[in-house]
Amino acid sequence: MTDTVLILNNDADWFAAQLRTSCPSFNYRPATTARQALDYAPDASILIGLAPQISDQLLAAMPRLKWIHALTTGVDNLLDSAYLTKTVTLSNSNGFHGPQMSELAILLMLSTLRNFPKIMENQKARIWERWPQPLLNGKTACVVGLGAVAEGLAPRLNALGMTLIGVSDGRADVPGFDEIYARKDLADAAGRADFLIVLVPYSPATHHIINDQILAAMAPGAILINLARGGCVDETALQARLQSGALRAAALDVFAQEPLPADNNLWTTPGLTITPHIGGFSDVYPQQVLPVVVENLTAWAAGGAAALPNPIAHGGM
Questions:
Q1: What are the backbone angles phi and psi of residue 214, rounded to the nearest 5°?
Q2: Taking CA 278 as the corner, what is the angle to CA 271 and CA 197, rounded to the nearest 5 degrees?
Q3: Structurally, what CATH architecture does the domain formed by 4-96+283-313 represent?
Q4: Between 148-159 and 98-113, two packed helices, what is the crossing angle to 10 degrees?
Q5: What's the half-sphere exposure (Cβ side, CA atoms, 13 Å) at 204?
Q6: What is the tens place of the pLDDT at every residue in 262-301?
Q7: If both were cysteines, with which of 102, 136, 166, 206 could 180 make a disulfide (CB 3.0 to 4.6 Å apart)?
Q8: How far apart are CA 28 and CA 307, in angstroms?
């Protein structure tokens, strides 16, 4: 029996057109809205979409569901869903976010280091004020989490003349990194950093991996950048360090609660730059993720759940 694939995405029609050529052994139902997806849901056995857009309502409407492939790396909401039953396999899309994550990291590094927000404020107020502009060249970046994104970031920071140290319990040697510390030595590594960049996946083991002890170990002139998940950083401890001036600056793209509520005090914390979880975004995201989708659909057609390259949860196994 041919599997019906429901694609929920703004570019669902484009994905379906591409996949009908690359993976013709499936029936495709593209949906650009949640309402349209619900219309197709009862007959679909495979669901493809951005994890945050996959609702419990949609999952509950899919009695035939066997496999979800997320177009994102993060699948936290799906793993927490009561509707992700043991019979449903879950997989995600990763390995291609290096360019956009690296470029955002560099943007935030330069902006916080040079106090670019003040420059923009001065422009609005028509104030001509100059100060020495610090360089990335010669600075040290400590990267917590040495996966594919860190591999993409390393050559870019190397090209800017930076020294790189990494923190990982899983890798002892990564191209572009000068030294690698174990997680138990994170405080020592953080103490050497001009920039502490968080890229580690979120899990119970990494919840508040950047806590007050680690923040206290950082030099007063150091800068924290979190592009991983909000739960990796103790936001209360970070806010206190910034307010006291013990830490120079920080930039957060991810938060414990998203969207960040308008009444959250982080919005007005001095020295903090906030971006709205845009690290993984790009203007060519469909083209970037398509090869991952093709790889997984091809594997499923060949051998079902057991053949998927990197399943997060194996349904019925």
A1: -70, -40
A2: 55
A3: 3-Layer(aba) Sandwich (3.40)
A4: 50
A5: 0
A6: 999 999 999 999 999 999 999 999 999 999 999 999 999 9
A7: 166
A8: 21
